[in-house]
């Protein structure tokens, strides 16, 4: 029994319990909602009871890592919160690759949104719907119900907001490669994982049919993964274990014909990780017989072939395949492309926010998680304002004492300074102001100051699109919302170098804890804080302790209400298999009450 099966058994090793009818009584929290069929634009307007007019209306789009983390600790005494998402559950994505091979059940990695709301005394309203348009000029969003596709009904409605929190994640990026949408599988959602699992089994079934040539069998059993990032690599590793531990026993005739190939455009797989992890993974894959094709770009995919161009030689190669899983990078959702056009960000690839997660060019709108990127301000853009603010006596010289007075604010406002100091092994910030021979100086001119800090911005890094970043941003933003009033009178942020006073809050700062990649065969690699890595079999226990803790939290929700033994029982949700795309009208989960009726 491998580690993942063991883990799965722990999660499900309980007798099945009685079903639970979940009653979500939204009105109990004092919020009333109704649909007004006479609304303008032929759409319903969901209005809130005027009971507590002082409360600001917050609309949250998305129930992924960022959205749910924001909701967890938001102070509901100050806000009326409405959540819109086409999925009525939160998915624990790090375990999604394991769902493709059945080592983890899909139902084990979801938490119903209703459950999350219930923990907040039901005071949050949830609409299972997709946001179709953001209208920042009128501070409203237009949504469409995801519950039932019925052309005769008008399922559109609009929600007004005082504050909008956009956490809609990203969609797959095909880089406009022909054939990808039609012939590739993606691995973003629960039902993608289930579809992949079914197709892998179908490939084996086809390969053992009578009358097949050996070549045809090999083609059916060639599993190609495009993208050597963590998702592609974890899927390849899980698939390898699934094939070699389970499927070859069921289909012994074709066991020697199976091939797994990972295609990567860069020179190495996992190239966003430490080099040690990347080469550890490549060696592990070599031992396992997983082929890694680096330095090539996919130019076309058809139902039987994938065409790649070798970067070094320019040669085109056609590779026959049974299934292609496409896992290369993230793209912006059409909803946000339209929004970006409206707010003057139309020429950007991804929605930009400032360091406080406020969308640039738009009032009272925040964006977090995979759908946005922080546009970190360069220190060189503000260098003369910083000098001016620090040079209190206006002497034209900055003394060490004057510099020390603003150092903390500089470090908080421009995180690249700290990274630069580390890279230069400087122990004191004032080391920055030493002369070219390394001697201390009592004071510096603006020119010296500019020169001293001129390389700092080279250390600016954009944050990775990970669950850790999204969750930390959600928690950060809810804290800012909770202390919004206090921030106005008693600001806690750094000095404003280009204006008076201080910023209300500290800017968002990401703290890296640990990033795992499961490489199959009980081997896990982890990137730890402080440029440390951990690799091998022992690392799986670290993996287990981090992920099991999160999963236990999910399961505990079930135990709290009695006989319920799984998340799915608790929520009354059912994962349906569907061939439709994940977002629009993707009916994955339903209320138990619906299916029971
Ligand atoms: C297979 C896989 C494995 C991963 N493994 C790891 C890992 O091990 N570690 C790690 O740190 N990260 C991992 N990630 C990355 C991580 O899942 C993402 O970074 C994270 O999900 C981003 O969170 P988010 O809230 O921004 O977006 P998501 O979690 O994608 O949530 C987006 C939400 O918005 C909703 N939505 C979409 N469109 C609309 C709309 N129009 N209106 C309203 N709502 C909408 C969606 O239904 C969803 O609820 C993995 C990702 C995948 C796909």
TrEMBL record:
The keyword Protein biosynthesis does not apply. PROSITE patterns: EF_HAND_1, EF_HAND_2. InterPro entries: EF-hand-dom_pair (IPR011992), EF_Hand_1_Ca_BS (IPR018247), EF_hand_dom (IPR002048), FAD/NAD-bd_sf (IPR036188), FAD/NAD-binding_dom (IPR023753), NDH-2 (IPR045024). The keyword Oxidoreductase applies. Residues 378-413 form the EF-hand domain. Its main location: mitochondrion. It comes from the Eukaryota. It is a peripheral membrane protein. Keywords: Calcium, FAD, Flavoprotein, Membrane, Mitochondrion, Mitochondrion inner membrane, NAD, Oxidoreductase, Peroxisome, Transit peptide. SUPFAM superfamilies: EF-hand, FAD/NAD(P)-binding domain. GO terms for cellular component: mitochondrial inner membrane; peroxisome. It catalyses: a ubiquinone + NADH + H(+) = a ubiquinol + NAD(+). It is found in: Mitochondrion inner membrane; Peroxisome. One of its GO terms (molecular function) is oxidoreductase activity. Pfam families: Pyr_redox_2. Belongs to the NADH dehydrogenase family. This is External alternative NAD(P)H-ubiquinone oxidoreductase B1. It comes from Forsythia ovata. The lineage of its organism: Eukaryota, Viridiplantae, Streptophyta, Embryophyta, Tracheophyta.
């Amino acid at each position: 029994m491998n580690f993942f099966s063991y883990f799965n058994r722990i999660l499900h090793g309980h007798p099945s319990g009685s079903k639970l009818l979940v009653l979500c009584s939204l009105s109990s929290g004092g919020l009333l909602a109704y649909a007004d069929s006479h609304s303008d634009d032929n759409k319903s307007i969901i209005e809130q009871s005027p009971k507590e007019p002082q409360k600001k209306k917050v609309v949250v789009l998305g129930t992924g890592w960022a959205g749910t983390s924001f909701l967890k600790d938001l102070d509901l005494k100050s806000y009326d919160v409405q959540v819109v998402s086409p999925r009525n559950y939160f998915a624990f994505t790090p375990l999604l690759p394991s769902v493709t091979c059945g080592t983890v059940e899909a139902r084990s990695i979801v938490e119903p949104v209703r459950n999350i709301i219930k923990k907040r005394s039901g005071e949050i309203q949830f609409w299972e719907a997709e946001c179709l348009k953001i209208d920042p000029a009128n501070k409203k969003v237009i949504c469409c119900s995801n519950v039932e596709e019925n052309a005769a009904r008008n399922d559109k409605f609009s929600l007004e907001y005082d504050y909008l929190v956009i956490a809609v994640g990203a969609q797959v990026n095909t880089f406009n490669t022909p054939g990808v949408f039609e012939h590739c599988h993606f691995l973003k959602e629960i039902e993608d994982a289930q579809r992949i699992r079914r197709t892998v089994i179908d490939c084996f079934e086809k390969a053992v049919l009578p009358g097949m040539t050996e070549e045809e069998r090999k083609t059916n059993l060639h599993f190609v993964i495009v993208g050597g990032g963590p998702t592609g690599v974890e899927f390849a590793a899980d698939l390898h274990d699934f094939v070699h531990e389970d499927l070859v026993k069921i289909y012994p005739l074709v066991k020697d014909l199976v091939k797994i190939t990972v295609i990567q455009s860069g020179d190495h797989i996992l190239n966003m990780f430490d080099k040690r992890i990347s080469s550890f993974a490549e060696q592990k894959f070599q031992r396992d017989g997983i082929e890694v094709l680096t330095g090539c770009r996919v130019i076309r995919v058809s139902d039987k072939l994938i065409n790649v161009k070798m970067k070094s030689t320019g040669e085109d190669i056609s590779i026959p395949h049974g299934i292609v899983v496409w896992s290369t990078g993230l793209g912006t959702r059409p909803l946000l492309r339209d929004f970006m056009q409206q707010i003057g960000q139309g020429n950007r690839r991804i929605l930009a926010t400032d360091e406080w997660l406020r969308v640039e060019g738009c009032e009272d709108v925040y964006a977090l998680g995979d759908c946005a990127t922080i546009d970190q301000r360069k220190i060189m853009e503000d260098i003369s304002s910083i000098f001016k603010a620090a040079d209190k006596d206006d002497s034209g010289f900055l003394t060490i004492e004057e510099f020390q007075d603003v150092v903390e604010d500089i470090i908080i406002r421009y995180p690249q300074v700290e990274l630069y100091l580390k890279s230069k092994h400087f122990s004191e910030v004032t080391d920055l102001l030493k002369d070219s021979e390394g001697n201390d100086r009592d004071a510096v001119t603006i020119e010296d100051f500019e020169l001293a800090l001129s390389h700092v911005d080279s250390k600016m890094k954009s944050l990775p699109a990970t669950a850790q970043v999204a969750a930390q941003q959600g928690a950060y933003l809810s804290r800012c919302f909770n202390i919004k009033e206090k921030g106005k009178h008693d600001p806690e942020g750094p000095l404003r170098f280009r204006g008076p006073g201080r910023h209300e809050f500290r800017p968002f700062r990401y703290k890296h804890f640990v990033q795992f990649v499961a490489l199959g065969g009980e081997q896990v690699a982890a990137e730890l804080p402080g440029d440390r890595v951990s690799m091998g079999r022992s690392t799986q226990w670290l993996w287990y302790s981090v992920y099991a803790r999160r999963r236990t939290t999910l399961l505990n929700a079930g135990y709290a209400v009695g006989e319920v033994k799984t998340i799915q029982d608790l929520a009354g949700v059912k994962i349906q298999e569907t061939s439709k795309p994940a977002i629009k009208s993707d009916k994955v989960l339903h209320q138990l009450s619906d299916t029971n009726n």
